Amino acid sequence: MSVIPALEADVLRRQDPELADILLGELDRQSTTLQLIAAENFTSPAVLAALGSALANKYAEGYPGARHHGGCEMADVAEHLAVQRAKDLFGAEHANVQSHSGSSAVLAAYAALLRPGDTVLALGLPYGGHLTHGSPANFSGRWFDFVGYGVDAETGLIDHLQVRTLAHAHRPKAIVCGSIAYPRHLDYAFFRTVADEVGAYLIADAAHPIGLVAGGAAPSPVPYADIVCATTHKVLRGPRGGMILCGGELAGRVDRAVFPFTQGGAQMHTIAAKAVAFAEAAAPAFAAYAHQVVANARVLAARLAAEGLNVTTGGTDTHLITADPAPLGVDGRTARGRLAAAGIVLDCCALPHADARGLRLGTAAVTTQGMGQGEMEWIAVLFGKVLRGEIDGARAREEVREFTGGFPPYSRTPAETG
Ligand SMILES: *Cc1c(COP(=O)(O)O)cnc(C)c1O
């Protein structure tokens, strides 16, 4: 195994066998269960190598050429490369690759454009808005006056009429589009038009679909939004982290909103790993991957519907599926528990216009493992059996272990992957 020799053979295992066992246990968990959490993926060995590199030791407050620390020659080159690759990949005039996470990127976007107390229009949390879109438990709900739009009760699609009506009634300083659970493409041109009608900034929180955008499998928000926030670890398959894209005129404000306003020293090992991931995402193989992710999600959604689950919006355009298992006689939490016992790992989520919790899942990780439509059908059939109680949990767990054994996430050597 290319990623693990340090664990198995030498340093960590000899010095700290207790922790080495924990890491190997996690690798075993990831390798023998099905990772259907919509926000997760398997980074390449090259990305992991950059994360474990000497840049992890480097302090680099500031930006290339303007650091508060000495010895940043290599850090500067690494960040330059990451920024250039991000700009090229997404056709953006400016990229900031320092955000520690998707939430930090959103915080910086608000800091760049808003003042405390400003009104912001975003998808309400019951309909798939993120915590940073106005949750009272989050800085966003505490410091800004959020108004929530929703989805149509029948179709599950974003209620464009309501977006426009609320925008004209509340005159927000910014409109946010983006979601943790919405399975369809967003109409960025529509949001741009409404933002222009009321003089609002448009912030696209593309944390989920940005990897599909990179692979040409989803529309890009870059031509429409004033600021695009994203993560690098979801479909994009890079290290855990955030990223901000914007036009040249907002570049200075965005950079100052990240550092020094909301963050300290950049995590240079993560930025190096982001550069590696951007290069991977620019390759033709990644476009094929992104399209396969969507093809797999479409098949999985259709097969889950055939098993009796109520799939929100009737399907998906992306990697993401939300579904209500109630027609099979189980609520979301019970379903998640049963599936977990079988080694099928996914999340619960809010269901629009319902008190019950639903299921949220995605195909980014299983597609990285090399699974295709046939495997999605296999997963959906087992899903149905587990939820209907037609198979014993322990037996299902064994079937999943055997099945995933054919798709090890980290089996190939770098020579073979290259
Ligand atoms: C995942 C996500 C985030 C937050 O990303 P973190 O890295 O977990 O902070 C923000 N917004 C949306 C829409 C997301 O899906």
Provide a descriptive summary of the structure in words.
This protein is of the alpha/beta class. It folds into 2 domains: about 230 residues, Type I PLP-dependent aspartate aminotransferase-like (Major domain) (Aspartate Aminotransferase, domain 2, 3-Layer(aba) Sandwich); about 120 residues, Aspartate Aminotransferase, domain 1 (Alpha-Beta Complex), CATH 3.90.1150. Helices cover about 45% and strands about 15% of the residues. It is built from 18 helices and 15 strands. The strands form 4 sheets. Strands 4-10-9-8-7-5-6 form a 7-stranded mixed sheet, with helices on both faces. Strands 11-12-15-14 form a 4-stranded antiparallel sheet, covered by helices on one side. A two-stranded parallel ribbon has the order 1-13. Helix 9 links the parallel strand 7 and strand 8. Helix 5 runs parallel beside helix 12, helix 6 packs across helix 11 and helix 8 runs parallel beside helix 9. The chain starts with a helix and ends with a helix. The relative contact order is 0.15.
Structure, briefly:
This protein has 418 residues and is of the alpha/beta class. It is 45% helix and 14% strand. The strands form four sheets. Strands 4-10-9-8-7-5-6 form a seven-stranded mixed beta sheet, with helices on both faces.
